[in-house]
Amino acid sequence: MDKEWMSADRMSVEYIKEVDEFLKFSLDHAKDPNYICCPCSKCGNMKKMTATIIKEHLYFHGIDKSYKIWYWHGEELHVTPDPPMMNEDRNYRQLDREDNLDEMIDDAYYESEVDPVKFENLLNDAEKPIYSGCTKFSKLSALLRLYNIKAKNGWSDKSFTELLVFLKDLLPEENEMPVSFYEAKKTMCSTGLQYEKIHACPNDCVLYQNSLVDVNWCPTCGVSRWQKKRNLEEVKEGVPAKVLWYIPPIPRLIRFYRNVDHAKNLTWHANERIKDGRLRHPADSPA
């Protein structure tokens, strides 16, 4: 579908009519009418908001003129079948879907209220090509692809860092490839779920929190809270012997229920399950 739009600075009755038609189409196909991609020239479908705000953006900024097929808003992409020699390209597209870059940006958008600066940096990395002139991969999509390959094949952090260093030298100069796993992880996880680090007894007796937050020795087994110096009995105060990484459940549940599809699945056992006394699903069991 080829749609020609008039620029917002020369807004006419025809442009206003086209905007209204677009918003009606978007609302008819939206999973959540309060969470629609904004196609204005500034947002470029990277931010989601209500139809009212999108209308203001389209009037003020104009629409992204390269956005001809409304695939972010429910219109189907009519793709011709691949020729026999295009299997490799088809595999690339399949990997793009597996990488879930769009879902990652959506999740980061939910967290943008907590730290909008980090979300802005993530958007910049999603738009920045991995090297000048590259149209296939942005910095974020390239790192996400590499990280997924690392996870699937069980690469160590050290081997992954060595690969990044090699790719940094291999790609054209002034590329955006980080040179360590630590830097790559910071880029991808800048808006991740909140977590807490809690010191623990090396023998798993207690957690050093609440009344034990200032205790240096386990009250149960008497072992020091701190690491010992190598080949010495002295301890390195400030360096815990064991740490528990705790992810609070409430932010995770909030993220789940903000997604319409996830919320529907999470409430299925209560709202859509057949309750006729027969055992079809673990949720049907009294236990």
Please, what is the average pLDDT? 78
Give the neighbour order of strands across the main sheet: 1-2
Order of helices and strands: HEEHHHHHHHEEEEHHH
Q: Can you count the beta strands?
A: 6
First-to-last CA distance: 54 Å
Shape: extended
Q: What class would the helix/strand composition place it in?
A: mainly alpha
Q: In this structure, how is the largest beta sheet organized?
A: 2 strands, antiparallel
Give the total of domains.
Answer: 4
- Rg on CA atoms, Å: 25 Å
What percent of the residues sit in helical stretches (DSSP H or I)?
40-55%
| Total DSSP helices | 11
- Low-pLDDT segments: 1-10, 79-98
Beta-strand level of the residues, as a percent range?
5-15%
